[in-house]
């Protein structure tokens, strides 16, 4: 059974999963990794979900305020041992529900062109591609998406 726990970025299991996420992204993004890493700090994120499968931290995700009405989805990751089981979808759905509770009307996110599985997850979850926002404007490897909640 999957247990979704609401926590903060201080959670040690979240921190361990983020280290694995960053290693994975460094491999996929190559030379572009340093650019993205500067925008993926996890200090002081108040809305984090850690997914546990039989007591083991299997995945994570977070939201943070982008504007008064828009939450940004950040740090989505499922440990390789737990992939292809629907866990990322469950984490994303829980993050969206939390964003609604916090009175956000939509969520946005950025992922990389090389993250085909992530792009598929987001499209299948109702996200549509939007023009690159913020620091991602003009970044060819970035895919930005949005979903109305």
Automatic annotation (TrEMBL):
PROSITE patterns, A to Z: GNAT
Name this protein carries in UniProt: GNAT family N-acetyltransferase
InterPro entries given in the database record: Acyl_CoA_acyltransferase (IPR016181), Bact_Acetyltransf (IPR050832), GNAT_dom (IPR000182)
Keyword Ligase annotated: no
Residues covered by the N-acetyltransferase domain: 1-149
Recorded GO MF terms: acyltransferase activity, transferring groups other than amino-acyl groups
Keywords from the named record: Acyltransferase, Transferase
The keyword Transferase appears for this protein: yes
């Amino acid at each position: 059974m999957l247990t979704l726990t609401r926590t903060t970025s201080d959670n040690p299991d979240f921190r361990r999963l983020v280290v694995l996420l960053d290693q994975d992204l460094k491999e996929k993004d190559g030379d572009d990794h340093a650019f993205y890493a500067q925008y993926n700090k996890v200090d002081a994120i108040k809305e984090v979900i850690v997914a546990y499968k039989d007591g083991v931290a299997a995945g994570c995700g977070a939201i943070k305020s982008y504007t008064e009405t828009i939450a940004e989805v950040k740090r989505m990751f499922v440990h390789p041992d737990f992939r292809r089981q629907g866990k990322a979808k469950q984490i994303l759905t829980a993050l969206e529900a939390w964003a609604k509770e916090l009175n956000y009307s939509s969520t946005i996110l950025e992922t990389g062109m090389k993250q085909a599985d992530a792009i598929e997850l987001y499209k299948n979850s109702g996200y549509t591609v939007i023009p690159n926002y913020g620091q991602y404007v003009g970044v060819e490897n970035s895919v930005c998406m949005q979903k109305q909640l």
